[in-house]
Amino acid sequence: MGYRGKLREREQARRLRARGSTVAGIAGSLHVARSSVSVWVRDVEFQPQLPLPPRGRRRTPNALQRRKAEEIERLLAEGRERIGQLTEQEFLVAGAALYAGEGGKTDGEVCFPNSDPEMIAFFCAWLRHFFAIDESRLRLRLYIHEGLDLDAATAFWSGLTRIPLEQFHAPYRAKPDPTIRTAKHPLGCPSVRYTCVRTHRAVMGLVRALLASDAHSGVAQSAEQGPVKPKVVGPSPTPGAPPAG
After folding, report:
1. Is residue 136 part of a domain?
2. In Å, what is the CA distance from 89 to each residue of 80, 96, 125, 139, 206?
3. Residue 194 contacts residue 126 (beta carbons within 8 Å)
4. What's the CATH code of the domain at 180?
5. What's the CA dihedral at 113, 115, 117, 123 to 10 degrees?
6. d(CA 203, CA 36)
7. Do 78 and 140 belong to one domain?
């Protein structure tokens, strides 16, 4: 399945989770791994589906829940329409922007750590598409808490990145500390690495060009000349609620 196919499955999984479906139920309905679903929906607010009330009456979502689900679905569709199909140039710029925010800046090694499978997949596709990569030199190191399934995690990241397990560095097993955080990434946080001075300098050349580009200044000037939205004082409005008079 391609990258866009996984995006569609992720969006479906998030919608189902927002409606109260369990991870197991979502995995079964979409025919995907439970570990993938767990990662996709980890930041979606979960309200378990309630059992049917007596006398056969089905409990329906309240008005707030309906507005929330409708807004999420509408904005997802709007996002897909606004982004559309990336051109070659847009793909290049998007990858450079992603590396500018998340990538390693130390000279000599391309390094991209992230716990989001979609970001890792996007970066790997971008790196292979725009640079001459020696596949045998790609490496991956996994940061994962003790007590989590290391074999399942390494198999997942190897399949996603197409980096063989024999090219994985020894994992870092973190000891859970409840005083720091309670949430753990079930598949850990991988770091994709490629040691090549020329490639890293080429990537950083794109990053510097992007950040120094005058292209965004024209967009900013257009925005400044457009209508200014009034500043809202007070708490954020409820999603889907009508504006105050």
Report:
1. yes
2. 18, 11, 14, 27, 12
3. no
4. 3.30.1330
5. -20
6. 29
7. no
Mean of the per-residue pLDDT values of the chain: 83
Give the type of residue at 24: A
Residues 165 and 117 in one domain: yes
Say which residue the tokens 């197409």 belong to: 162
Please count the structural domains in the chain.
Answer: 2
The residue with greater pLDDT, 229 or 112, is: 112
Decide which of 214 and 22 is more confident: 22
Q: Assess whether 67 and 147 both reside in one domain.
A: no
Kindly report the backbone phi and psi dihedral angles of residue 30, in degrees, each rounded to the nearest multiple of 5, phi listed first. -95, -5
27 plus 114 within the same structural domain: no
DSSP state of 61: P
pLDDT of residue 46: 66
> What six digits make up the tokens of 90?
């847009």
pLDDT, tens digit (0-9, with 9 covering 90-100), for 178-236: 666 555 688 999 999 999 999 999 999 999 999 997 766 655 555 556 555 544 444 44
Count of other CB atoms within 10 angstroms of residue 42: 15
Instruction: Give me the domain span that covers residue 183.
Output: 88-209
Segment 216-219 long-range contacts (CB within 8 Å, at least 24 positions apart): none
